Amino acid sequence: MENWTPVKLNLIAAADQNMGIGRNQKLPWNIPSEFHYFLEMTTKPHVSSSNCQNAIIIGHRTWETMDAVVSKPHPGALNIVLSRFNPPEPLTYPNTIVCASLDHAVKRLSTDPEYEGLIDTVWVLGGAEVYRAALNSQYFHRLYLSRIQAVYPCDVFFPEEFDEDLFVRVSNDKIGDNRVPRGVQKDEATGVEFEVCVYERRDEEGRKQSTSI
């Protein structure tokens, strides 16, 4: 068996009260303070090192519409586009690579000498199918979910695999990142409230307890 330590996958998403995350391949809302938090987390490494950057993983459909939400490629990060068809277009952008699957991306980040010691946090940015694969992955670490306290017209929803009975919320002290806002936030520009909730998968004992209640 190969001896390598895999990177951990952190999902970051925002969802309304119905767990909607998108409409017409775009965000259904414009909440500046929540978007600022998202950029702070994904574009800047948690550790202070000029040689370190984050990596973001997205599906090819999300890549195609990325410039409607943020710049393409995602700034300050290694961009990994998932596609089995090896599309050439992403490779015309700097700091962007294509991987055939989520497992392929994890292995490349974990074993390629080009990235050794240079990747801080690996963020999964969607879309829904990539979120689903990451939730089911053995490399899943945490879900950073902005719960928006409003309802918007959506045609894409966060995967049903996120069953809160199988996850446990992580305290801010354990997260240890002051970029993650504490408690309910009210966006000054729109008045919309949201709360960033961070989840880990329950351990085996916790799963047994939750399913026996």
Give your account of this protein's structure:
This protein has one domain (9-212): 3-Layer(aba) Sandwich (Dihydrofolate Reductase, subunit A). It contains six helices and eleven strands. It has helices spanning 32-43, 60-64, 102-111, 128-135, 172-175, 204-212; strands at residues 9-15, 20-22, 53-59, 77-82, 96-99, 119-126, 140-148, 156-157, 167-169, 184-186, 193-201. Strands 1, 3, 4, 5, 6, 7, 9, 10 and 11 form a nine-stranded mixed β-sheet that branches. The longest helix is centred in the N-terminal third of the chain and has 12 residues, at 32-43.
Which features would summarize this protein structure in a list?
Dihydrofolate Reductase, subunit A; oxidoreductase; 213 residues; two-stranded antiparallel sheet; alpha/beta; DHFR_dom; disordered C terminus; dihydrofolate reductase activity
Helicity range of the residues? 10-25%
Gross morphology: globular
Question: If you consult CATH, what is the topology?
Answer: Dihydrofolate Reductase, subunit A
Low-confidence stretches: 208-213
For the sheet with most strands, the description reads: 9 strands, mixed
Q: List the secondary-structure elements in sequence, H or E.
A: EEHEHEEHEHEEEHEEH
Rounded to an integer in angstroms, the radius of gyration calculated over CA atoms is 17 Å
- The count of DSSP E runs of length 2 or more, i.e. the number of strands, is 11
Strand content: 25-35%
Look at the structure and give the mean pLDDT.
Answer: 92
Per-chain topology:
Blueprint: E1 9-15, E2 20-22, H1 32-43, E3 53-59, H2 60-64, E4 77-82, E5 96-99, H3 102-111, E6 119-126, H4 128-135, E7 140-148, E8 156-157, E9 167-169, H5 172-175, E10 184-186, E11 193-201, H6 204-212
Parallel strand pairs: 1-6, 1-7, 3-4, 3-6, 4-5
Antiparallel strand pairs: 2-8, 7-11, 9-11, 10-11
